[in-house]
């Protein structure tokens, strides 16, 4: 293996690194936008008026598409796709593996007389039957019940990848349970649309639809492909399991927003071209904090489309990176000692009249509308903080949360001191009817000043997992490798539930004799009081906050097993069922899948670490030790028994250190194997995950420490492994 790693490095000319793989960009990227998307403009060109109207009603109003319309759409899609050289189609979906999936079928159909035609019908468009037997199901079905169905999602546009027409779809089991990320997300989006639209009738009766929006920020690392292949731990686990730190990492903060390296710029150029063709509105690119870490961010989009675009982007990034001799890392913490990668989810609500409901207006009425959605969002997070925490839980994200670049596992809300003082003023509102003086004070001196407050005083708190940043809430705790759909399903579900509750309470007060504004102020006042414990403006990394959070009753769920245990709380199960997102069986199945994935990831890491330590580190260390022993023997032969000892003092010390560390690794690996086997024998998924967390993971540290000590000694033997961060830097 060591020889293979050195051979891999021989492919890299270290004097001038890779040759520039230059990319030419068209004069206007906008000319490429949606070139490979069955967009609204394309549909106008290819569809009949009847079919186009039906599709737009399905997108905007959620109406069903009739079978004969589906036939018309299918023919139009095929004609458009074939005009671009497409030969196959696939239902593109997002199973619970965390990646995307597709099964390609040809348009080719034999007919009588030894002839053939290209055929694509409404039935083919609407539904496919991929084999579901190998996808995670959490015990929903038996192994022999392999059938699963994919169903077309007309609210997300079809697109072309290579010579294949990709049709965004949901994925369900033969018995009807959801087996993907998209189906529950669509339900949550529908729920929050209905709830928010109902609340908006207090402020603007012209609003008939509210659409949640999402702007994600994708962080990632780029590693030269030859250097990536030299690291078996990177190849097999996506992260470096061992290796000493370089002299220079990110201490000087000179990479953040620095000049983008030429090789990386060429990668980014080609990536942006592909994004434009597929309708992904990528607008931002820059160096991130860690060496070789970068970020891409698009403009805000409707949540369902934004989630699809992020999943599609991650696939495109890997393909484009390969062409530029890079490998892309989405692991949340691929290297110890430098920042990890997140995927900040910026969430808001927009009306069909063009308003952002989390942006203040120019008058008190619009600001009361803003406060309504602002306070309800905070209340929703307060009530369901642990569910939001569970939605971002994974083995890889556990390494990142609470480090210098990511918020802690304690869910809190940051809104800024100025807005916090506004809420404190609202908290003083008189119970019941307001006096004329109070109404004037609220509307002019409290609510009326919100626009100027937000203009100059909004800020970001990097230590907050849920921060208000001017006209949106930023969920900073989502991991780089995660599917945005999971956190977005939770966010929109809890927002919908909270807005439904708010509407009921306000209507009750109005029926009791209060005017509309008075009723709204009264309910918001109570919500502010009830939610104050989750609002925090300080340093989320501090030990003092952990102690304070405990006093406030906020959970600090540091590990995935802890977080996923909370997910099965009856309160959350009932929430999902009430809102029509999941039934109890589906939640239990998904919880089982996540626990099993957690245990499997830790198990793989344990096995890889054991293999590298035994098969690479120890043999290299013993070879070096043998050379030291020969050196000591030579000194003894030359200088004699008495005089050689002072001269061989350092060598003798190294020989002893090597033996001690080899022994530590051997004992650590044996303990790790026993702990793994004990954990694997547990039938309860929650208990198994806890055992992997509490018994298997702690044994990593002893093996790593001894291995790192040996690596420092045998640098020349293992240099592709030991100097991993210097070698991974891009120039």
TrEMBL record:
Single GO biological process annotation from the record: glutamine biosynthetic process
Signal peptide: none
Annotated GS beta-grasp domain residues: 87-176
GO MF term set: glutamine synthetase activity
One Pfam family it belongs to: Gln-synt_C
Residue intervals of the GS catalytic domain: 181-617
Record-stated family: Belongs to the glutamine synthetase family.
Name of the molecule in the record: Glutamine synthetase type III
